[in-house]
């Protein structure tokens, strides 16, 4: 019996201390919907995490604000500025007939786009600016015109000039520039990040690349750096150095959240897996609740873990409780411990009953026994001396 009780007590202590021994896993709530209603849902999930014994919210609370609300579009303002410069350059060239001002506006637009991660849209816009720059140089820089037209074709081979707007000699000069020189020069890019040459992804820097002679624009991008670029003229072996510009943790989180949103929208499972792993690493978590919108505009949610099975199947959000949404992330509770065979069943967590005091140790029983014994002794003495005149001293009785 004592051995059985000891074993059960040890098992009970192990069970009670399970939640304390296991570290509480951090959970991030990532909203890709840009729906303001999700902000309240995220707050509700975090309140539930605060009450959990096995899960907890982010340690880096300062990053939570970047996981919900409007998605970052860090290049929007620069692209809009480049569009404005393009419009001004066009107006200066064809309305005010100020070629110098047009060249300047086109150059300002190019500078804006050199700080933007290249896309098809950005590349086409840069081509429009170099075309306007080339047209502005027609009167005084024939070599500059050719370099600008060549770069325009390299950026956007589909570019053509409207005969209703441009005279034949300008159209001929532009068409002649379509014949690009072979890639016969070496361009070494010093710096870190993803290298883009004329809007095309060419690999990681630092490295050396084959390029054609002439004008080029170089950009270094990456999640962990500020996008930085420069224009370069190659006329032989050339080198360009772009300084490092580390991105803040907040900017990295916002960029990766945007990449995750785009992957989900496109249904690109490989890109989605890569983005969620990168975002989880930035946040320092291994568990995520992700909320997004379905094509029909309704909200859906799913969980992700840094271990199998990864993503859970998406579920339509129908006002489920946060506890339900977190079920797939919380580890299973420890199994119930059965009592040892043959040992009495003990209710774990309840105090052991106090054994009842034996009847013979109760004070009133002992007092009654003493009085009874005294009476028997007196009775025996009286009986033994029944023929004698005996005077009983009352002090004898009182001393018993």
How would you portray this structure in words?
- By secondary structure, the chain is an alpha/beta fold.
- The chain has four domains: 23-59 and 253-331, 3-Layer(aba) Sandwich (Rossmann fold), CATH 3.40.50; 76-176, no CATH class; 185-241, no CATH class; 360-399.
- The chain is 43% helix and 17% strand.
- The chain has 13 helices and ten strands.
- It has helices spanning 2-16, 18-21, 37-51, 76-94, 99-113, 120-136, 142-155, 168-176, 249-266, 269-283, 322-325, 363-384, 394-399; strands spanning 25-31, 55-56, 185-197, 200-211, 214-221, 228-234, 238-241, 287-293, 299-305, 315-316.
- Strands 2-1-8-9-10 form a five-stranded mixed β-sheet. Strands 3, 4, 5, 6 and 7 form a five-stranded mixed β-sheet that branches.
- β8 and β9 form a beta hairpin.
- α5 (99-113) packs antiparallel against α6 and α9 (249-266) runs antiparallel to α10 (269-283).
- The longest helix is centred in the last third of the chain and has 22 residues, at 363-384.
- Residues 1-20, 345-352 and 396-400 have low confidence and may be disordered.
Question: What's a concise summary of this model?
Answer:
This protein is α/β, with parallel strands linked by helices and 400 residues long. The chain has 13 helices and ten strands. It has a five-stranded mixed β-sheet. Strands 3, 4, 5, 6 and 7 form a five-stranded mixed β-sheet that branches.
